[in-house]
Structure formats: structure tokens, C-alpha cells
């Protein structure tokens, strides 16, 4: 927190509520012109006006005194923007939610010593001759993952020192996002509305970006997919199981590998265990059965635990109360539970 009013936080607060400047004007009684100039940093806000904004937006006044700037999605969204299916309003809410969590974590890191080191390698894809698969194996080796499926991807990322947030993105078009801010651990955001099998693949895809990509390229999406496939389904360990795969076999393998039937069928094709023609017919069959939208046999969910533990420490100590936590997070006490890393998670007693 600082003593200086941060005009970028007005836009952040407003967009987190999904409001336009006009809506904020109506709710706060301030003119739209004033709000526009305030957000642009051309106007200062008096104490009364700050109180009016805070009241309308449902944040404590301290929200507007947070340090930092309001940042966009970065590399994660290059691909999604191209699809441009999601409403801009929903994207803005998601963008704001991501920023709010990142600033909260930053302050948490300043006040408690939780993440002293991490085991996130950074590997230049050119130095590996574009061998994405060998990078995926190196990360598995680095993290000492046992042979076979990754039983709990969120836990593996947390053990390596990454932070995973799982919350409702307000849209079904985006499964996961990631970023590696300067001086912080890598951050992963997972849509709680995505089916777990697909969410795991998307999370592994984001892991690929974090490890391999530092600038955007035309090939980055395909590379991140290849990384995810090899990370979750290592060729050497899965290949023989994918021989002449059909729908039944895919359904059987799904709970073991904890990936979608669709991902298994793609993998079988890429590893040459079915012909392109067989792949096409299986893919059509998935569509006819409605499995491309919703697959049967959902796998059990994975929950982030790391920051929930931090929350529970705060909740159970007399020295640092729940209301102190809300103050640190610059949100009201009633809204604090929303900012647990997994808001669908159980309250740890
Ligand atoms: Zn991507």
C-alpha cells in the first residue's frame, strides 16, 4: 500500500465488476467525464470522491492506493484473441480478476516467507533444436515425477513452487492462463468451469509456455500442445497402450491417464498407433456421441492447496486476524473468501 492514489486502480475496480464508465457514474453519482479523466490520470480525486467510488464498487478505499499497474493478458491470450469469440466485457472481468489476485499475492509474499525458491526451469527451445518433447521429459525429470500418469498436476506445480488459482472465469471459452511476473513465482489461473480432463491439458499447455516461451511466435501454440501431450502422456510409456484405440479403450484409459478421450485419440494418431483415416472416423464418432462437448466418466477434480494453507494459518492465528487478511488483500471481509486460490475448495478448519 502507498499514500498515493493510483488512478489505474479505478479502471481495474470498475472492470472487475463488469461496468462501463457510464454505469459507474450512475452508481457513484460522479460524472462520466470525471471518471474518464480520473482513469486517464488527468484528475485527482478528493476524499469524498474516493469514498463514493469505493462505496459504489464495493471495495475498501485502500484498493485505490495499491501499487502497481493494470496489466493485460500477455502471451497467454495471443491465441485466444484470434478466436475472438468471448465477449470483451467478460474478458475485461477476467483480466481484472487476474490482476487483483496477482497484486494480493505480491503483498502476501512481502509479508510471509512461503515461496523461497522454485524449481521452474526456463529452457530455450532453439537450444533444444525445437525438441519440445525432450524439454517436457526434462521438466518431468527435474520434478522427479514417477513414470506413468501425472496423478495431480496442480500439486506437482505447487510442489515446484508455482501458484495455481482456480476460479470461475465467467466464460467457457478459456480454460487456463499463465504468467511469470518479475520477482514472483510462475502463476497459473484455471477455469473451475472447465472439465478437469481438459483443464489438466490446458494447464500443462500453460506450463509449456512458462518453461519454453518468453516472446510470442507463430509456433508457440503448437509447441505448447506438444509439450502438454508429452508431459501428461510420455510417448515411451503410453505408446503400446494406444494400439488400435477405439472409443471403448479411450474410455478405459481416461481415468488412468487423467486426460480426455479426445486427447488419447490425438496422441494415438501422433504416435502412429492409428492411421489418419481411423483417426478421422474416431473423431467423427466422438462428435456423434456428443463427447466433443461433454465426455463421459469425468475425472476427479484437483484443488490448489498451497495458498489455502496460508489462508488457514492466517485464520487460525490471533496475531493476524481475518480482517487483517482482508486489509492486506484490499477487499471487504465478505468478499475475501472469493480470493482463496480455490474458491470451490473446502474451508480448512
Ligand atoms: Zn497457449
Categorize the overall geometry: elongated
Please tell me the total number of domains. 3
Rg from Cα:
22 Å
- Nearest-integer average pLDDT: 89
Number of helices: 16
In whole angstroms, the N-to-C terminal distance is 29 Å
Main pleated sheet: 3 strands, mixed
User: Which residues form runs of ≥5 with pLDDT under 50?
Assistant: 344-349
Total count of strands = 3
Structural class: mainly alpha
The unique ligands bound to this protein are: zinc ion
* Percent in helix: 40-55%
**Widest β-sheet, arrangement of strands:** 1-3-2
Proportion of β residues? under 5%
Overview of the structural elements:
The chain is mostly helical and 349 residues long. The chain folds into 3 domains: 1-70, Orthogonal Bundle (434 Repressor (Amino-terminal Domain)); 73-232 and 305-349, no CATH class; 236-300, no CATH class. Helix content is 49%, strand content 4%. The protein has helices at 8-16, 21-28, 32-39, 47-57, 78-83, 88-111, 132-142, 153-159, 196-212, 220-232, 235-238, 247-257, 261-270, 276-288, 306-315, 322-329, and strands spanning 163-167, 176-179, 187-191. The protein has a 3-stranded mixed sheet with strand order 1-3-2, with helices on both faces. The two termini are 29 Å apart. Residues 344-349 have low confidence and may be disordered. Residues 79, 205, 209, 221, 224 line the site of zinc ion (ZN).
Amino acid at each position: 500500500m502507498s499514500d498515493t492514489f493510483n488512478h489505474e486502480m479505478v479502471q481495474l475496480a470498475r472492470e472487475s465488476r463488469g461496468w462501463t464508465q457510464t454505469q459507474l457514474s450512475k452508481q457513484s453519482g460522479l460524472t462520466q467525464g470525471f471518471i474518464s479523466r480520473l482513469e486517464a490520470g488527468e484528475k485527482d480525486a478528493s476524499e469524498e470522491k474516493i469514498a463514493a467510488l469505493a462505496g459504489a464498487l464495493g471495495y475498501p478505499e485502500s484498493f485505490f492506493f495499491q501499487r502497481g499497474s493494470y496489466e493485460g493478458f500477455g502471451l497467454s491470450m495471443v491465441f485466444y484473441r484470434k478466436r475472438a469469440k468471448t465477449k470483451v466485457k467478460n474478458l475485461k472481468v477476467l483480466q481484472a480478476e487476474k490482476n487483483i489476485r496477482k497484486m494480493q499475492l505480491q503483498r502476501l509474499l512481502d509479508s510471509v516467507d512461503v515461496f523461497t525458491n522454485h524449481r521452474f526451469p526456463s529452457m530455450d527451445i532453439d537450444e533444444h533444436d525445437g525438441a519440445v518433447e525432450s524439454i517436457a521429459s526434462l521438466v518431468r525429470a527435474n520434478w522427479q515425477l514417477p513414470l506413468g500418469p501425472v496423478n495431480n498436476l496442480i500439486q506437482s506445480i505447487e510442489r515446484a513452487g508455482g501458484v495455481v488459482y482456480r476460479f470461475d472465469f465467467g466464460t467457457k471459452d478459456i480454460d487456463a492462463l499463465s504468467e511469470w511476473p518479475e520477482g514472483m513465482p510462475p502463476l497459473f489461473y484455471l477455469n473451475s468451469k472447465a472439465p478437469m480432463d481438459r483443464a489438466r491439458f490446458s494447464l500443462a499447455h500453460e506450463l509449456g509456455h512458462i518453461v519454453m516461451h518468453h516472446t510470442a511466435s507463430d509456433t508457440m501454440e503448437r509447441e505448447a500442445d506438444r509439450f502438454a501431450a508429452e508431459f501428461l502422456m510420455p510417448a515411451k510409456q503410453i505408446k503400446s497402450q494406444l494400439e488400435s484405440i477405439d472409443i471403448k479403450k479411450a474410455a478405459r484409459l481416461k481415468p488412468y491417464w487423467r486426460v480426455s478421450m479426445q486427447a488419447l485419440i490425438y496422441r494415438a494418431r501422433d504416435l502412429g498407433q492409428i492411421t489418419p483415416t481411423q483417426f478421422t472416423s474416431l473423431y467423427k464418432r466422438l462428435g456423434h456421441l456428443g463427447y466433443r462437448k461433454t465426455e463421459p466418466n469425468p475425472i476427479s477434480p484437483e484443488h490448489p492447496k498451497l495458498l489455502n494453507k496460508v489462508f488457514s494459518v492466517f485464520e487460525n492465528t490471533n496475531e493476524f486476524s481475518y480482517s487483517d487478511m482482508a486489509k492486506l488483500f484490499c477487499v471487504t471481509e465478505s468478499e475475501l473468501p472469493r480470493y482463496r486460490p480455490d474458491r470451490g475448495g473446502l474451508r480448512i478448519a
